[in-house]
Design goal:
Layout lengths: L2 E6 L1 H5 L18 H4 L2 H6 L1 H15 L6 H8 L5 E6 L5 H5 L4 E3 L2 E8 L7 E2 L16 E5 L9 H9 L3 E5 L21 E4 L11 E4 L3 H12 L1
Parallel strand pairs: 1-2, 1-7, 2-3, 7-8, 8-9
Antiparallel strand pairs: 4-5, 4-6
Helix pairs in contact: 5-8
């Protein structure tokens, strides 16, 4: 069974009704990025940061996977599908995908502020004073700016095994995720689904200038 490696970003979740974090002016839901997505921001105003992610979590629990998520799940019948996502939602899992790597953490998990490997299921708000069993403050299980991306080496190894690479809903401009495309073996067929693609086609790079849901329909047809 061939390895299909899929890199996904905010564009696939947007069609489920999830807002993409970053606006055109660089703000995240009206906030400066560093004030809600950095350790420094959390130290300066933990209540603001916790509430920012509480709102994202509440929104996530109200939306559902879309046809692009479901299409990826059905491909497990034909391929060994590995999804590497920059998204912090669980829509891939809810659609039925069984192998999902979250580069930037998961909104439905928390961890304590001391140990970044501590993980707890979290479907409710996190408030100041909410502690883990060891007595440490809880925070979202999200990789903030300036923090290590613990799954990036695993993602690189997966990309090195790709027989086919599919990129959906990500500009591939954010480091270190942007470098993953270069870990695919030479001449690996690459398909890039994005309504406004930021890269140029090459002999093995095929661009599908559509949204995630429309692009997946075309991709499925190309696979036959």
């Amino acid at each position: 069974m061939k390895n299909l490696v899929v890199l996904t970003g905010a564009g696939i979740s947007a069609e489920s009704g999830l807002k993409t974090f970053r606006d055109a002016n660089g703000l995240w839901e009206g906030h400066d990025v560093m004030s809600v997505a950095s350790p420094e921001g959390f130290r300066a105003n933990p209540e603001l940061v916790l509430e920012f992610y509480n709102q994202r979590r509440r929104q996530l629990l109200e939306v559902k996977p879309n046809s692009a998520h479901f299409a990826l799940a059905t491909l497990e019948k034909q391929y060994k599908v590995s999804i590497i996502t920059q998204n912090v939602d669980d829509l891939h899992e809810r659609a039925g995908s069984s192998d999902v790597i979250h580069l930037h953490g998961e909104l439905l998990k928390s961890r304590n502020i001391i140990d970044d490997t501590s993980e707890f299921e979290c479907k409710t708000d996190i408030k100041l004073g909410d502690l883990c069993p060891n007595g440490h403050q809880l925070r979202p299980h999200i990789v903030w700016f300036g923090e290590a991306v613990p799954m990036i080496e695993t993602a690189m190894e997966i990309c090195e095994q790709a027989d086919l690479l599919l990129i959906i809903g990500t500009s591939m401009q954010v480091y270190p995720a942007s470098g993953l495309i270069h870990y695919a073996p030479p001449n690996t067929p690459i398909y890039f689904i994005d309504p406004k693609p930021s890269i140029q086609p090459t002999k093995n790079l095929n661009i599908i200038s559509k949204t995630a849901t429309e692009g997946m329909k075309i991709f499925m047809e190309l696979l036959g």
